[in-house]
Amino acid sequence: MQSNVIRQKALLRASYSNRVFNVVGSPQDDSVFNRIMTEDGAWEPEVMDVMASLVRPTDICLDIGANLGAHTMILADLASQGKVFSFEPSSLNARYLRENITANKLENAKCVQVALGRERKMKELTSIPGWEGCSFVSPDGDVDAVVEKAWGPNIVTTKESIDVDTLDHWVAQNALSHIDFVKMDVEGSEPAVLEGGLATFERFRPKLIVEFNRNSLAFYYGAKPSEFYEQLSKLYSFIYIIHDERGLQPTRVSSFEEIAPLLDLSGHWWVDLLCLTQPYEQIAQPRSVISTPSSSKKVVYFSRVDLSRVDNGGGLICRNTARRIAQTKGVELTICCVGPKGQVEKTSTFANSIG
Hints:
Oligomer: single chain
Mean pLDDT: 84
Number of helices: 13
Largest sheet: 8 strands, mixed
Number of strands: 17
Distance between the termini: 60 Å
């Protein structure tokens, strides 16, 4: 890695306390670093809130797909007497990750510069300059065609050789006695990580937050999102949606059909899922600083909708999800029934229940 890599400093703010972290990254990175800068130090605070309610001081945590380490810093703070192992195969991202661990004196965190997958081997990592948070393990076949399908024509990419390990092998090599929490966001490689770490997940049953990205799964690897959901449901009896709106408790789902509408929003084809072996309500210990919904919080449910109409803070969600959201204290839920051309034909507003 050359020493003249462009770098800039920013601050990352914890959602659950007054803790502030120093962050180094590339000012050209619009996927993570620039978002932290432009949003005054915020980075997925709704995910931080859930982490803060579940991670205990002595936990061993894995940050799989760590990028520059935003979630690593949070996990290291929460598991202050435990350990955090952060997996990041990109040489550029790993450099920033190590710098951020050192700058914030996170002695309980360690960068592991490998990718995790189905088997141990050398592979290729494809990155898109300016979107380093979207790097992915190159699939077999014509990678340029895959990139064009996912991103459009004339996209510049860079490629580098990386080591791929399996989680089961890595855990055995490091003789871990427990793993308590996993955050995983690896741009469509999540099924491969689960397959290569099946024994680990079955043995330890760690709490898991995973990005469920329809496009990455389908475009990069030809995977069916419904099959990935089934893979998760075989390991975890309790699966929840983490809502983008802070203050809403994670909503339990029991089938892929309940999250599928959230993967079809215009410009938004992913959702963060929380996977547990016990009900969230029984094990969560929310921090007192987590914001709660105000009486003016509004959630909109469209029973049928032209996707171009999903705006103004509304969202497309299934009826069961709407029913559970409507039961959240302080939430006013509006159901919009729309016709075949997207016109709103009827609206009904409910406070705390659908009825």
